Amino acid sequence: MYNYLFHVHTWRCGHASDEQDEAYIRKAVAMGAKYIIFTDHAPFLGNPFTNRMPYEQLDSYLASLKYLKEKYRHKITVKTGLEIEYLPSFRDYYEELRANKEIDMLMLGQHHYEESRGQYFFHDSEMAYFGLGNATLKGMNTGLFDVVAHPDRIFKAHTHWCEAFDRISELMIKIAMNRNIYLEKNARSMCRLQSKEYRPEFWKLVPADAKIIYGCDAHSTAELRMGEEIRCLN
Ligand SMILES: [Zn+2]
Ligand SMILES: [Zn+2]
Question: What is the whole-number distance in angstroms between the Cα of residue 7 and the centre of ligand 1?
């Protein structure tokens, strides 16, 4: 049931290993995975942000995975996804990605947010969780996203959990349940406990019947971890 490798990046994002897409699939097959789901950091037109593939590489990313899907179809199911922030100015772009037949899923990963049209906020501050949380909630409510990546990471600037975090977490969980959106338990966060990216306080609020997916957030083949292995981390 958890024999999948979910949340896999590629060399295109600029902060992953330079291994080719096929190397991830070969390793996945060797690990006995039934599925591998790529979710590289999505580009935006004009390349306004770093740490993601250039917009010009989107088509070749999709083409490469399309070719590999076919090549390995008897061995493993390859899915093509993108990890992307919700920025209201780009609403049409999300619709376009959603309508693209080569893209199987969109994962909302709110690493920064749009404060006002074209103004972005990146820094970890006292109120970052509020901006990131609200952007995530708005994104979830569009119905355009299948998964929320590391929903608990929005609180990473805070060592201590406070009551206000419960409120925003409860809202996220409620929308996820109503809209059938998966919440991702992220192995990268779980392995860096010092970073406060993984928050047991958040996961305690998640009911047993919510949809949870285990993501390895791999940026190299060495970081590929099966869902089952991540599930057992906590
Ligand atoms: Zn990354
Ligand atoms: Zn990621």
Answer: 10
**Tokens representing 86?**
């919700």
Is 212 in contact with 2 (CB distance < 8 Å)?
Answer: no
| Residue recorded with tokens 């591998």 | 36
How far does the centroid of ligand 1 lie from the alpha carbon of residue 225, in Å? 16
Tell me, rounded to whole angstroms, the distance of Cα 180 from its chain centroid: 16
Q: 66 alpha carbon to ligand 1 midpoint, in Å?
A: 22
Dihedral angle computed from the Cα positions of residues 54, 108, 101 and 99, in that order, rounded to the nearest 10 degrees: -100
d(CA 135, CA 122): 13
182-to-52, 124, 215 alpha-carbon distances in Å? 23, 25, 11
Q: What is the CA radius of gyration of the chain?
A: 17
* Local structure of residue 42 (DSSP, 8 states): P
For 84, other C-beta atoms within 10 Å of its C-beta total 27
At 93, the amino acid letter reads Y
Nearest to 226 by CA among 31, 86, 24: 31
d(CA 214, CA 203): 13
| Residue range 29-58, pLDDT digits in tens | 999 999 999 999 999 999 999 999 999 999
**Residues by chain with Cβ below 5 Å of ion ligand 2:** 83, 217
**Residue 95 corresponds to which amino acid?**
E
- Domains and their CATH numbers in the chain: 4-231 (3.20.20.140)
Q: What digits encode the pLDDT tens for the residues 208-227?
A: 999 999 999 999 999 999 99
